[in-house]
Amino acid sequence: MKKAETYASVWDAIADTPEEAANLRARSDLMRQITALVKAREWTQAEAAKRCGVTQPRINDLLRGRLSRFSLDALVNIAAALGCRVRIGLDAA
């Protein structure tokens, strides 16, 4: 019987490299925060899309958590369009 592997996070489990896991983690954090902002402001998808400078289907992808469809750059741009300041921090491993 093979011993089960344990991981620090789901991202570590599904990523091929620690770098990929870090990128997935950063993108998911940004998506979660942008989604929370859109929901808190009670915007329709069309209104959120207009404010973010993207299409409504793109907002739909974001709100449904389709992580693979967004780069870190795209999420930073969306956050900036909403008037948010994105800060990146490092934690020692």
Task: Summarize the helices and strands and which ones pair or pack.
Layout: H1 10-14, H2 18-40, H3 45-52, H4 56-63, H5 72-81
Describe it for me?
It is a single chain. The radius of gyration is 15 Å and the shape is elongated. It contains five helices and no strands. By secondary structure, it is mostly helical. Helix content is 58%, strand content 0%. The chain has helices at residues 10-14, 18-40, 45-52, 56-63, 72-81. It has a domain at 43-93: 434 Repressor (Amino-terminal Domain) (Orthogonal Bundle). Helix 2 packs parallel to helix 5 (72-81) and helix 3 (45-52) crosses helix 4 (56-63).
Task: Give a brief description.
This protein is mainly alpha-helical and 93 residues long. Helices cover 58% and strands 0% of the residues.
